[in-house]
Amino acid sequence: MEHLKYRPDIDGLRAIAVLSVVIFHYFPSLLPGGFVGVDIFFVISGYLITSIILKSASNKSFSYLDFYKRRVLRIFPALSIVLVSCLIV
């Protein structure tokens, strides 16, 4: 897997997206279009995932199995905690 170089500008976009969604939820009249922060997250995720795939493909090291395995290992622990918490409560 190719690791991308750290991009502080992307972290800035993430912060703006988070703030816009939080402000929209708590003070909807203050930022009526704050829900667009969710769209920003989708765009950032698409950009990062595409960059990883293209970089791996250019090195002839891309594997769908490895790609999805990494996604599952990254997402499923948190998902499992949420599901178990919901079942308990």
TrEMBL record:
Alphabetized GO MF terms: acyltransferase activity, transferring groups other than amino-acyl groups
Highest rank taxon of the organism: Bacteria
One of the record's GO cellular component terms: membrane
Domain Acyltransferase: 9-87
Positions of transmembrane segments: 12-28, 34-54
Pfam families for the chain: Acyl_transf_3
UniProt-listed InterPro entries: Acyl_transf_3_dom (IPR002656), Acyltransferase_3 (IPR050879)
UniProt keyword terms in alphabetical order: Acyltransferase, Membrane, Transferase, Transmembrane, Transmembrane helix
UniProt GO BP: lipopolysaccharide biosynthetic process
Protein name per Swiss-Prot or TrEMBL: Acyltransferase
Lineage of origin: Bacteria, Pseudomonadati, Pseudomonadota, Gammaproteobacteria, Enterobacterales
